[in-house]
Amino acid sequence: MITVENLTKSFQGVNALNGVTLDVEAGTVLGVVGPSGAGKSTLARCVALLERPDSGAIRVDGTDITSLDGSALRAARRQIGVVPQGDSLLRQRTAAGNIALPLESAGVPGPQRRTRVGELLDLVGLTDKATAYPDQLSGGQRQRIAVARALAANPSVLLADEPTSALDPETTGSVLTVLDRARAELGVTVLVVTHDMGVVRKICDDVAVLEQGRVVEHGKVLDLVNNPVSRTSSALLPAVDLNPINENSYDRVADVVLVGFAAVGALLPEAAHRFGVELNIVGGGLTRLGETPVARFRLGLNGERSDSALEWIGEAGGAVQRSLKGPQGVAA
Amino acid sequence: MRSATPWSDVVAYLVEATGETLYMVGVSTVIATLLGVPVGVWLQLTAKGGLRPNAAVHRVLSFVTDLGRSMPFIVLLVALTSVTRLIVGGSIGSTAVIVPLAVGAIPFVGRLVQNILSEVHVTVVEAAITTGASTLKIVRSVLIRESMPALINAIGVTVIALIGYSAMAGVIGGGGLGDLAIREGYQRFNDRILWSTVAWLAVLTTVIQLGFTRAARASDRRRHASV
């Protein structure tokens, strides 16, 4: 749906983007993450058509939109709904008035405009706040109105630039829910630029890690967590070594990643039973990526067939990351 | 020893002069607003970081604006005589004063407006840009509407300034409160008229200022009672 090809941008000789290439499939949510100064904001501003890249292309449905001008540029902007970083609502307009702005720009007549604004208020769950002014809304409510505004003109792509940066964890959840609904109910393709891995954990299908203006990792979140050396897995999965353990009390100690209900629930007891080993979870924990439970456990095993048990877990779909005690690279 | 002017005559003087002042100031404020706001918008659009940055245009516009603002009004009043005659068909009287008042106020309003518009937060403007709004739409619905309370206050400031300028209207026979105080009061040693006029001017400007402050607050949707 939206592809970014080899995008470069420099400011006064400093390269903010060094050939960024991304691909977001229609109807999916891509999270672009990375440390401050990695180029996230520049990328967001280029995709929002607020900044022109030095070279490269941004294609929406195959059409390059980076070199447009005048009314073609304005039409392209309506194709990309933007939730800007920070407070961006008109303070002299009601919530409904703010949502109506893109519709006015698009020349949608009054009655249709009102209907559409009503639908969007419903989508973001703020129907009762239609006539409230931004100063009467909480930060999370303002941000949801900003999402509704971004969706008003039926864009095919929704770009959210640090949508949760100024919010507390609870309101962050409500804003992310709204982004997720936009994808689920409107089929919008979503690109979220964020420094918060929690956003990736909750709503992203894909993730791209940006470092020094380059994409250093790009793929499906559930694939990347299975890759022990990926930045995504170390950032998203529960830490395993919170509690120092006495490794001497086990024959084998290994880390394992389990994805999905079946794996998390049944794999370990099954392994213990099948190979007659004592299998304890000595570290790590359980998290959730979207709807999928994902676990990273540190296991301590006792018994003659411990290596076989680990091997079996690997074959059955768990990713055994490293064996801390015993033969290295027991299973992949 | 001349007996003091009767109060009824003082009131009659004041009423007539107030009418002249309000006429001169009112019409010139309307003209200065109609022409000064676009000047301010243009200044802000062409400024660095504006919607249509253009250093050359901005510099020329800034220069002309500041030149206009630095001109003492009394000089403008006499210097524009021929222009005034061309526009209103005469060069004396209240109507004739309107031309230099308006001309003097346009750059004043322009600069005030630019300063106010530049205060609209860049995030808000950029958000509007991303909705595909045209420049005209952004100027109207974002820059001007978001600044409305401050703009109303700026017009109030302009009215007060023009009341001050209009005191010199007497030079070309424009009349008004300033002229009353100077000619009937000061030059003829009529303290009653002088001080009555001063007191009345204080009341008038206070009321006008209050009115504009109220209007500005009424137009402001920020910080309304919470839900």
Automatic annotation (TrEMBL), chain A:
One Pfam family here: ABC_tran
GO biological process: amino acid transport
SUPFAM superfamilies: ACT-like (SSF55021), P-loop containing nucleoside triphosphate hydrolases (SSF52540)
InterPro entries with a match to the protein in the record: AAA+_ATPase, ABC_transporter-like_ATP-bd, ABC_transporter-like_CS, ACT-like_dom_sf, MetN_ABC_transporter-like, NIL_domain, P-loop_NTPase
Keywords, in A-Z order: Amino-acid transport, ATP-binding, Cell membrane, Membrane, Nucleotide-binding, Translocase, Transport
GO molecular function, a single term: ATP binding
Record bears the keyword Membrane: yes
Stretches assigned to the ABC transporter domain: 2-237
Protein known as: D-methionine transport system ATP-binding protein
Organism: Lentzea jiangxiensis
UniProtKB/TrEMBL annotation, chain B:
GO CC annotation terms, alphabetical: plasma membrane
Membrane topology label: Multi-pass membrane protein
Alphabetized SUPFAM superfamilies for the sequence: MetI-like
PROSITE patterns in the record: ABC_TM1
GO biological process: D-methionine transmembrane transport
Keyword Membrane attributed: yes
Key words of the record: Cell membrane, Membrane, Transmembrane, Transmembrane helix, Transport
Membrane spanning stretches: 22-45, 57-80, 86-109, 150-173, 193-213
Pfam families xrefs: BPD_transp_1
Similarity comment: Belongs to the binding-protein-dependent transport system permease family.
The protein, known as: D-methionine transport system permease protein
Lineage, uppermost ranks: Bacteria, Bacillati, Actinomycetota, Actinomycetes, Pseudonocardiales
